[in-house]
Amino acid sequence: MAAIEKYHGKIKFGKVDTERNKNLFNRFNIESFPTIKVFDYGKSKKDNDTWVYKEQNNIEEMTKLCNQLIDDMPKDLI
To answer: Model-level pTM greater than 0.90?
Structure first.
Protein backbone atom coordinates (compact mmCIF):
# COMPACT_ATOMS: atom_id res chain seq x y z
CA MET A 1 0.00 0.00 0.00
CA ALA A 2 2.89 2.39 0.68
CA ALA A 3 4.02 2.13 -2.95
CA ILE A 4 0.59 3.14 -4.16
CA GLU A 5 0.60 6.21 -1.92
CA LYS A 6 4.16 7.15 -2.96
CA TYR A 7 3.31 7.12 -6.67
CA HIS A 8 -0.21 8.56 -6.37
CA GLY A 9 -0.89 10.89 -9.28
CA LYS A 10 2.05 9.54 -11.29
CA ILE A 11 1.22 5.87 -11.78
CA LYS A 12 -2.20 4.25 -11.71
CA PHE A 13 -2.53 0.84 -10.10
CA GLY A 14 -5.40 -1.52 -10.67
CA LYS A 15 -6.45 -5.04 -9.78
CA VAL A 16 -8.82 -7.26 -11.74
CA ASP A 17 -10.68 -10.37 -10.64
CA THR A 18 -10.46 -12.40 -13.84
CA GLU A 19 -13.08 -14.87 -12.58
CA ARG A 20 -15.61 -12.06 -12.59
CA ASN A 21 -14.13 -10.25 -15.63
CA LYS A 22 -13.34 -13.02 -18.09
CA ASN A 23 -13.46 -10.57 -20.99
CA LEU A 24 -10.38 -8.79 -19.57
CA PHE A 25 -8.62 -12.13 -19.04
CA ASN A 26 -8.97 -12.81 -22.76
CA ARG A 27 -8.53 -9.24 -23.95
CA PHE A 28 -5.11 -8.91 -22.31
CA ASN A 29 -3.94 -12.50 -22.82
CA ILE A 30 -3.43 -13.33 -19.15
CA GLU A 31 -1.50 -16.61 -19.00
CA SER A 32 -0.70 -17.09 -15.33
CA PHE A 33 -1.25 -15.54 -11.91
CA PRO A 34 -0.19 -13.15 -10.68
CA THR A 35 0.31 -11.18 -13.89
CA ILE A 36 1.44 -7.59 -13.79
CA LYS A 37 0.70 -5.69 -17.01
CA VAL A 38 2.24 -2.31 -17.70
CA PHE A 39 0.25 0.06 -19.89
CA ASP A 40 2.33 2.84 -21.36
CA TYR A 41 -0.49 5.16 -22.32
CA GLY A 42 1.96 8.03 -22.65
CA LYS A 43 2.86 6.51 -26.01
CA SER A 44 -0.41 4.93 -27.14
CA LYS A 45 -3.88 4.10 -25.91
CA LYS A 46 -4.06 0.73 -27.68
CA ASP A 47 -4.66 -2.35 -25.55
CA ASN A 48 -1.86 -4.24 -27.27
CA ASP A 49 0.70 -1.58 -26.28
CA THR A 50 1.34 -3.31 -22.97
CA TRP A 51 4.11 -5.45 -21.60
CA VAL A 52 4.23 -8.05 -18.88
CA TYR A 53 6.40 -7.40 -15.85
CA LYS A 54 8.36 -10.62 -15.26
CA GLU A 55 10.73 -9.70 -12.44
CA GLN A 56 10.32 -10.75 -8.83
CA ASN A 57 7.06 -9.64 -7.29
CA ASN A 58 8.38 -7.94 -4.16
CA ILE A 59 8.41 -4.36 -2.90
CA GLU A 60 12.03 -3.68 -3.87
CA GLU A 61 11.58 -4.80 -7.48
CA MET A 62 8.22 -3.06 -7.80
CA THR A 63 9.76 0.17 -6.49
CA LYS A 64 12.54 -0.10 -9.09
CA LEU A 65 9.92 -0.60 -11.80
CA CYS A 66 7.87 2.40 -10.69
CA ASN A 67 10.94 4.63 -10.48
CA GLN A 68 12.05 3.53 -13.96
CA LEU A 69 8.59 4.18 -15.42
CA ILE A 70 8.58 7.68 -13.96
CA ASP A 71 12.15 8.37 -15.15
CA ASP A 72 11.20 7.28 -18.70
CA MET A 73 7.89 9.17 -18.70
CA PRO A 74 7.66 12.41 -20.70
CA LYS A 75 7.70 15.20 -18.13
CA ASP A 76 4.44 16.69 -19.42
CA LEU A 77 2.64 13.48 -18.33
CA ILE A 78 3.87 13.58 -14.74
So the answer is: no
